[in-house]
Amino acid sequence: MRIHLEPPKYTRDMPGKFRISATIWLCISYPFFLTAQDSKNVSEIDTVAAEERKYVKKSAKILHIAAPSAMIVYGVLSFHSEPIRKLDYSTRNELLKNDYMWYDKWDTYLQFAPAAAAFGLKLSGVQSTHKLSDMLIIYGLSNALESGLIYGTKHIVKRIRPDASDHNSFPSGHTATAFAAAEFLHQEYKDRSVWISVAGYGMATLVGASRIYNNKHWVSDVAAGAGIGILSTKIVYWTYPHLQKVFCKKERKVTSVLLPTYSDGNFGFSLTCIF
User: Fold this and answer.
1) Are 167 and 158 in contact (CB under 8 A)?
2) Distance of alpha carbon 28 from the chain centroid
3) Fold of 68-274
4) pLDDT tens, position by position, 31-74
5) What confidence tens digit (pLDDT) does each residue in 223-245 have?
């Protein structure tokens, strides 16, 4: 009796089944490999984008500091640089020679115009960066910082004015107040319209020019005053969120009152905050 043994079918079909199973497994798993790879790429892209945003924000902050800092440096260099000081004298002499001096005092009021515009827009319903109470506090802090820097520097430097009326020429206080207000207006409404910022800085520039044309300040005084005003407001805007965390609690309400003041022929504002 002859017995014929055939090899088991599974030994012959195994390679084909393995290929089919491998193909199915590859088809199912391949999208997951792609997804994992894409996720890795997306994660890397997000990380790079975040780093780029940080770099851009840091660079923008440096550029924002650069302009007012350059103005302040220009003013300080007038004490050591002969060309800058000559420009101060030549500008004043040219105005006197051609009788271009104004001798007006409207700049005493115009220095507050950008801030008045900011609060006027807010009361008119125009959306600003901060609510009204925060705007009052920020503007008050900006003026406090700017005034401290201005009058402290005046007391130390004691530069004589072009008209020789006193020794409080450097830096220009009117110009600093005007540019602090212009930067305040810009910070609150820069997302609404660029023309609001242009108008604010235009008024501040007019105040600075008037201090020169009124023979009350040198060009370098005005440049330094403008830089101090802008930088003071920027510093307050950068630090205000941290001050809120330290001094303010959510359940507390802040009551602020901004009142006009008058002293020795100068108008100003007094800010009172009740926490």
Assistant:
1) yes
2) 54
3) Vanadium-containing Chloroperoxidase; domain 1 (1.20.144)
4) 444 333 444 454 555 565 556 566 556 666 677 899 999 999 99
5) 999 999 999 999 999 999 998 88
- Asked if 154 contacts 168 with a C-beta cutoff of 8 angstroms, the reply is yes
Angle at 216 between CA 213 and CA 221, to 5 degrees: 95
| Full-model pTM | 0.73
Report residue 90 as tokens: 């030549």
Angle at alpha carbon of residue 73, lines to 145 and 212, rounded to 5°: 80
Residues in the chain: 275
| Cβ neighbours for 232, distance < 8 A, ≥ 6 positions apart | 142, 145, 146, 149, 176, 180
SS3 13: helix
Domain boundaries, the chain: 68-274
Rounded CA separation 41/35 (Å) = 10
In the block, which residue shows the tokens 């303010």?
A: 248
DSSP of 209-244: HHHHHTTS--HHHHHHHHHHHHHHHHHHHHHHHHHH
Average pLDDT, the chain: 81
DSSP 160: P
Q: Which two tokens stand for residue 33?
A: 């490999």
Higher pLDDT, 33 or 96: 96
